[in-house]
Specification:
Largest sheet: 3 strands, antiparallel
Distance between the termini: 44 Å
Number of helices: 5
Helix content: 40-55%
Radius of gyration: 16 Å
Mean pLDDT: 84
Strand order of the largest sheet: 1-5-2
Low-confidence stretches: none
Order of helices and strands: HHEHHHEEEE
Number of strands: 5
């Protein structure tokens, strides 16, 4: 559906703002936080290797005020930033693996983000090897 009141330049500006936003820390700090959260969650899954991003995001949201400034889209954007900047290895030498698809996933478990080329990227979960 076309909305004559919404200009493409406005939408592009909003997308650029979201893409360029900084979550408040360096990508390496975000990666280390993801790894710590992953380790806590993987124990709860009885050794399952891929942890749904939804579980990680909910754990991050437990910090006071964090969810007010970090939407699901912003969280997915931070994951994408790790991949684009090739920030994949923790200080412990573990590599971040992002699961982009799961046949078992519910739509609420999928995190979507728009890439620079206008295409969407979908993330389901993470693992570290």
């Amino acid at each position: 559906k076309s909305l004559p009141t919404v200009r493409p330049s406005f939408v592009a500006k909003q997308l650029k703002t979201l893409r360029d936003r900084n979550s408040g820390g360096a990508p390496t700090q975000f990666l280390e936080s993801l790894y710590k959260s992953y380790l806590r969650n993987v124990k709860a899954l009885d050794g399952g290797r891929t942890v749904p991003l939804r579980a990680i995001y909910e754990q991050f949201c437990e910090a006071p005020g964090w969810s007010a400034q970090n939407t699901r889209v912003a969280f997915a954007q931070d994951i994408l930033r790790l991949l684009v900047t090739n920030t994949r290895f923790t200080r412990a030498g573990k590599e971040l693996i992002v699961a982009t698809d799961s046949t078992k996933a519910k739509s609420a478990d999928i995190f979507a983000v728009v890439k620079d080329d206008g295409n969407k990227e979908y993330f389901y979960g993470i693992a570290f090897k």
